[in-house]
Write a structure and sequence with these properties.
Blueprint: H1 2-22, H2 26-38, H3 45-58, H4 61-73, H5 80-92, H6 96-108, H7 115-127, H8 131-143, H9 150-162, H10 166-178, H11 185-197, H12 201-213, H13 220-232, H14 236-248, H15 256-267, H16 271-284, H17 290-303, H18 306-318, H19 325-337, H20 341-354, H21 360-372, H22 376-385, H23 391-403, H24 407-419, H25 426-438, H26 442-459
This protein binds one DNA strand through helix 5, helix 7, helix 9, helix 11 and helix 13.
Length: 460
Amino acid sequence: MRRIKDKLSTRLMNVCVASLCKAKQLEKAEIVIVDGIRIGLQPDVVTYNTLIAAYCRVVGIDAGYSILHRMKDAGINPDVITYNALIAGATRYSLLSKCLDLFDEMLEMRILPDIWSYNTLMNCFFKFGKPDEAYRVFQDILLKDISVHSATFNILINGLCMNGYTENALMLFRSLKCHGFIPQLVTYNILIHGLCKSGRGNVAREFLNELVESGHIPNAITYTTVMKCCFRYRQFEEGLKIFAEMRNKGYTYDAFAYCTVASMLLKTGRITEANEYLGYIITSGFTLDIVSFNTIFNLYCKEGQLDNAYTLLYEAENGGLESDKYTHAILIDGLCRTGNFQEAQQQLNRMSVTGFDSNLVAWNSFINGLCKTGQLDYATHIFESMDMKDSVSYSTMVRGLCQARRFRAASKLLLSCIRGGMNILKSDKRIVIDGLRSCGLTHEARKVQSKIQMAKLLHY
DNA sequence: GTAGGGTTAG
């Protein structure tokens, strides 16, 4: 009687742990377990498996491993579900060799892999751009006569699409359907995404119709996939229409889709509309995370409303939100746009001190601001002192020098850039050559042109 | 446990 009661209570504890883990509240889940142990309950294999999956998902594979050790210390043997969770965790963190090691370890421990072990392994190979190995796993499944799961086919179709074999994915889909496979909503979403990604928006649209005709109801994933596809191919109005439909149907329950739309509007200069959507994010009660914050912050900075931007930043930081490298880059760009170069420089220096190492974007923004306002010497000085430069840095300087009609300096920089194997925009190379010609420096222009040709031959 | 999605510079 007592044992049945304990079992029931352990199950109850596991339900609690699972729901907390789902909400990523791992500390609370641990507290539940500690309390359980205090009243005499023993965590079982299900408790540990739940924890391992959650730690792998939220923290990382090492955290998952440490739970495995805790589990073993407690005298509980891992099972196939334990290993599946670890393999899935390794896949998520892009650790192919770890996946393979875990699979071997599982076999050594005489734990029989199930269809999900194979599914995960197959997915792992696809993720690493190894479709042949993935397909071999699929053949292994068939050979061992393990009964497949519909997810097996979904993973196959997805993997083929992600590895550039959209046509094969389509063929597989059709032939599976002929053999009685009933596509799920996720199957359609996978195909639609693959088709959009490979530039076949029209076919994607056909599948969207087929999805509805076969009785499925598109979900938030379907909508965002199609919307992004429209924006990518510059069908802005079409994309906005999809967003409106998404909103009407109640699929905009977080700030994600709003941020996509607002950024697109901002990039295409539709600031009033961007303002409307972002205003909605602010008043909607969505929790502002750093990305949605940055989106709004960017709008204020682009509009030159630095006071509003600073107020927002101040409030956010007081509320415990930590700014990131994007926030800093956006602020520096905003300062440059409003002519506050001194403050921008101070901010940049502060960033170096506080250890934001990937601030290249911010430095590029700064030299761009200087070039645009004709402060070429200052820009050159900064450019030369930068310990990291990319093609954007070079492009910006080359463009700036040309604008100041310093074509000789521009061509010198362009050549050093080419020598370094860095490729800048074709249009920027053109500006240099045309500029040299317009000053009568035809010989120099020809030299630059031939060097560009030479570099092309060498690099491709 | 397989699908989507947001932020910065030329």
